[in-house]
Amino acid sequence: MDWIINLFTNTESIAHIALLYAIVIAVGILLGKIKIGGISLGVTWVLFAGILAGHIGFTAPKDTVTFVQDFGLILFVFCIGLQVGPGFFESFKKGGVTLNLLSTTAILLNVVVMFACYYLFFDTNDKTNLPMMVGTLYGAVTNTPGLGAANEALNSVWQNGFGELPQIASGYACAYPLGVVGIIGATIAIRFLTRTKLEEEEQKLEAEEAENPQAKPHQMHLKVNNAYLSGRTVAEISDFLNRDVVFSRLFKNGEYSIPTSRTIFDMGDEVLVACAEADAPAIQAFIGPELETEWEENESKQPLVSRRIVVTNPSMNGKTLGKMHFSSVYGVTVTRLSRQGMDLFASRNYRFQVGDKILVVGPEDNVNRIAELMGNSVKRLDAPNIATIFIGIFIGIIFGSIPFAIPGMPVPLKLGIAGGPLIIAILIGRFGHRMKLNTYTTTSANMMLREIGLVLFLASVGIKAGANFWNTVVEGDGLLYVLTGFIITIIPILIVGTIARMKYKFNYFTIMGMLAGTYTDPPALAYANSVCSREAPAIGYSTVYPLKLRNLTKKRLTDDEVKQKVVNYLRKNEFITRSVVQSICGMTRTTATRQIRRLCEENVLVNKGLQKQPIYFLKEKE
User: Fold this and answer.
1) How many whole angstroms separate alpha carbon 421 and alpha carbon 427?
2) What gap in Å lies between CA 72 and CA 87, rounded to an integer?
3) What percent of the chain has pLDDT over 90?
């Protein structure tokens, strides 16, 4: 039995260190599945499991724990940067600017309130109190990456004469639980302060969506009934419309064909049109009436195929759809595009990235040529782009180590091992194609790397803080950290949320999503989605969270959670479609389809639409 005792007590043993992290992470993940009042702390339980291990003396050499902590942090923030990079700069467009300014204001107010609590409740002569309040701040705003950056900054500025290095993770752990609850509670309080009625907000969203439909793909079967179009080419008609429109099929003189830019329209021709949903009425009014009959092709007369092709050729990175000349050069038409499970309209300005999927229509031989050109090798996507990841980390660490001298500061400012790789990852994710870097990583692979990095970081922080945590909470200022953390959480939310509602007139559900994105709090977003049947919370969340660059670790929903969301939606709406399931559950097209199939097999849903255009109803409503 000595070998078992040695395994748990010999801290220098590699096996002991591996066992330590395995136990801490496994226990933390299992505890994260526990919900109280529908709210769970999720992966943050790994931190508390690490604190417990450190408290009972189940630990490892400090240098080893520090290395694992820093490496986990680097991996975590770099994968976040790769994910948000492509859409980061888009978040500043239109109303997103105001939402991001409000979000930034909330963060600045958190800092202001933190300093106010520091001067009101703590001894400013004690040099450990300010770092501990910084840890409390990051717990109050549920910002795990910020805790890592603060830890690194503290290590660089703390001098030996100041005494023992403060374990700011203790302050973080004290404030985090009420931080999660406080964000939701303050959001609810805003509704009462502004006298907002949820039913009215839902009705406003419905009216806005009816007036301003988003540019989603829309397909119509039209009959040419405008004499002006007779004898005109597709190119002339497209120029006159001045809208993104794709004529994917043409039925003329009893034969089906694919229109090219030189194809001439005549009165009575039937055409299948793909366009943005918002442009559909104008295009229909210009061309002719929409036919109710389904588009049916006689493939024996004109053999056409429709195939979804995956972009896997790295040379396609960054090229625009318009410059590929699919119609004029290859004789095919691209009617749909899909990225990360989201269907997009085939605009000429669309810029390809590896991993995109395109729906191509044309003669089989021509479609095969496009498949060869674009790559269409799913196996190639399965191979991770390790080179890009570690090249980016290498450049990020160098960039983060560059000192910036600022007058009045005792030491030069550095972005560090968190800020450097994060910024480089964002830039690579957005502009990597210009440097011929293949930045594509499957969603599951990115999430796996990110989660591994996060749990390694949290476990390490907890193990290091565990030795002094109990003294901090019981004998020290632990209860004061809990109180000040709660104050730091709710005051900025109440101020910013009320301003967003009363001054800028944002929809309440959008405000809920914006606040959840500001603090990257998945439970807050889940609550917002539970009280709103539309996409406003998700839009507010996604508009601000790339700028905040925080703990983007929203958990995948379980089967029961998916079922609950779908049923709740159908309690308020007559029917549901695959795209709605995809939106309210935050999942890819394939996963949404699989979940719908499962719910149909369990007799929860029933399809009353067509096989190719399914519409699902709640079974019990029949």
Assistant:
1) 10
2) 24
3) 12
